[in-house]
Amino acid sequence: MIRIEQLTKSYQMGGESLQVLKGIDLVIHKNEFAAIVGPSGSGKSTLMNMLGCLDVPSGGKYELDGQEVSGMDDDELAEIRNFKIGFIFQGFNLLHKLTALENVELPLIYQGLSTEERRERAIQSLEMVGLGDRTDHKPFELSGGQQQRVAIARALVTKPPIILADEPTGNLDSKSGAEIIRILHDLHAKGNTIILITHDPNVAQQAKRMIRISDGLIVEDVEVG
Amino acid sequence: MGIIQAYKLAIASILSAKVRSFLTMLGVIVGVGSVIVAVGFAQGSTKSISDQIKGLGSNLIQITINTRGGNRGVTLDQLLDFSDQHADSIAALAPTMSASVTAKYGTKTHDTTINGTSQEYSLIRNLKVQEGRFIQSIDVDLRQKVAVVGTAIVNDIFIDQDPIGEKIILNGQVFTVIGVLEQKANGQDSSDDDQIVIPISVAQRLSNQSVIRNFSIQAVDAAQVDAVMTQLNTFLYGIYQSSSAFRVFNQAQILSTLDTVTGTLTVILSGIAMISLVVGGIGIMNIMLVSVTERTKEIGIRKAIGAKKRDILMQFLIEAMVVTGIGGLLGIGIGLGVIKFVIGGLGIVPEVYSITWILLSFGISIAVGIIFGLFPAYRAANLSPVEALRFE
Ligand SMILES: Nc1ncnc2c1ncn2[C@@H]1O[C@H](COP(=O)(O)OP(=O)(O)OP(=O)(O)O)[C@@H](O)[C@H]1O
Ligand SMILES: [Mg+2]
Q1: pTM to 2 decimal places
Q2: Does any ligand 1 atom lie closer than 6 A to the CB of residue A198?
Q3: What ipTM goes with this model?
Q4: Number of neighbouring beta carbons within 10 Å of residue A136
Q5: Given CB 3.0 to 4.6 Å as the disulfide criterion, which of B177, B239, B324, B360 pairs with B369?
Q6: Chain A interface includes B294 (CB < 8 A)
Q7: What dotted CATH number matches A31-49+74-223?
Q8: Which atom of ligand 1 sits closest to the CA of residue B386?
Q9: Structure confidence by residue, pLDDT tens digits, A91-102
Q10: CA–centroid distance, residue B360 to ligand 1 (Å)
Q11: Would you list the domain boundaries of chain A?
């Protein structure tokens, strides 16, 4: 369960302080499927980075499964990212020198798993996103939709309870986008907590809950679907 | 992340940028290569000189009379008497007088050294003849113009010809060759095989000098060497009333002086080579800093999916170590190649390989990797994941 209270984030810009998040209160329960929407620059990605422990808040509280996250050091945060969170980035963020399989194995390397176990789980994960036949392809040999699916396979391979997706369909045509949403639905059905950012109202309608952010504050929080 | 995994990662990353990796290594290759060559050269020179000194025989004592003594001083007869009186500790004594000459045989010439001495010299220096005979007392007494030649001279001017009985001209005087010295070195020029031995009395005339300044003495055994040296010092001091007019020394002293000299040589040469290693290390740091910047995005991705600080630190550090380690191995290979084919192959000095220095320079190249990789690796490890991910 995710619980944040009065979460703020400011950036220091040449002496001036720019407050991007202005006090967010939010509770997301286990196995929820929430969409975050809002205009560009409203702070969606900033919030998502906070939830994904990629960045630390300037103020407020963030409790993840009963653990206070805001006071943790870098390595503790890395551990949470590694074990609890599967992050799907807007820009795929694959390592282009590695094959699909090696990219998917990466989080498991940092968990210290053996080569065989890594391989086995990475192949499983790639099969789950329908790329069982593309394991040895490098990212540039794959289509955008396929790359995004590799990124999803990488997020899933550690079997994290929480999946965070920052505009997972943003760069894709509607067919590939629909495929990605279908995978997210499957994961939700299996018990994962899913939080996704989107600009696409149709995609947002796929979720069970829609959180609208404007200018660093939550302005709407409704059930949908 | 395990160590083996980190090595695999490092090797993959090095292979993905072969040219750059090689250029990074270049400093270490050159540095380690020159350490190996420098040390090999210094030790080779030491070996060649100390081999020559050891070849002189172990119980050898030498006396040198300084020019300052003028024309007065100890005579051969005085020393021979002295040696007879101490027959229990002195096995033999021979005078020596050397000079450079050009030996002529027919139209052929050969620049060499003549050694005027007596019969005892063959015992003291362990010189045997492979043909003919050595100088004998009668040659000295009768001032016979006879010569015993080394194989270097035979090889040069008596090709395919028996030199015994042939006439050669030394400083305008005609000498008859009566023997050929047994080969001691490899018959090359400037080695022990490149000398002509003639009677001391003839050498005195030839060089127009009556004073003999060099004597070689053989103690009966090594244990007597110190005692004989003391006796000689006392005896000579009695004659000259000054300890600076003469010098009595033996092989052990020369060897220890030589060791100091070549020790210094090794330190200087390898010091210079070390500097090039440090320069190489700075090059590595430079290239690695660029590489960390270029790979900011990669670092961001790795951290975002769970890499800890030490995972990134280890990745870059091991990469630096593998680069310098491979560079070190290549440097050692090239250095040994130079020693074998250039220094040893051309006969400049004998080939000497020092395991200590090979291991040491390999260790140093790894250390260079660690030291100069640390800063870039530390930088990479401390990047914030969000900042790094934003990097394009
Ligand atoms: N590292 C940073 N330094 C300075 N300002 C930043 C930084 N990161 C984000 N911002 C600012 O914070 C604001 C919110 O950015 P954010 O990326 O969260 O927007 P967003 O809602 O995800 O927009 P989009 O829909 O376009 O992705 C923007 O005005 C942006 O300029
Ligand atoms: Mg965004």
Answers
A1: 0.70
A2: no
A3: 0.94
A4: 10
A5: B324
A6: no
A7: 3.40.50.300
A8: 1
A9: 889 998 899 999
A10: 53
A11: 31-49+74-223
